[in-house]
Specification:
Structural class: mainly beta
Strand content: 15-25%
Distance between the termini: 36 Å
Largest sheet: 4 strands, antiparallel
Radius of gyration: 17 Å
Number of domains: 1
Length: 86
């Protein structure tokens, strides 16, 4: 996930976002997933296809399954928010 903020103040908040990278073999965008080991607290980011997204990585430090980390999502309201713009 990306924690860098390149947004201007009027474009929304700078919170954790899913970062996409280009797969060299296919040229398509692929999401990057973050994982954290609940035993040793090691972290890793992996770029995966949607079909690979459910696979769980194994921690290289303690050889345990890692947990997927979900960051905060950003919601940007345009106009009057939920209602119909006047």
């Amino acid at each position: 996930m990306s924690f860098d903020c390149n947004l201007k103040p009027h474009e929304g908040s700078c919170r954790s976002r899913v970062q996409f990278s280009t797969a060299p073999q296919e040229g398509n965008l692929m999401p990057t997933y973050d994982y954290k080991c609940s035993t040793c607290e090691a972290t890793v980011s992996q770029t995966k296809t949607l079909s690979e997204a459910e696979t769980t990585p194994i921690c290289v430090k303690c050889d345990k399954a890692m947990d997927r980390v979900f960051g905060l999502q950003t919601i940007i309201f345009r106009g009057n928010g939920w209602g119909k713009d006047a």
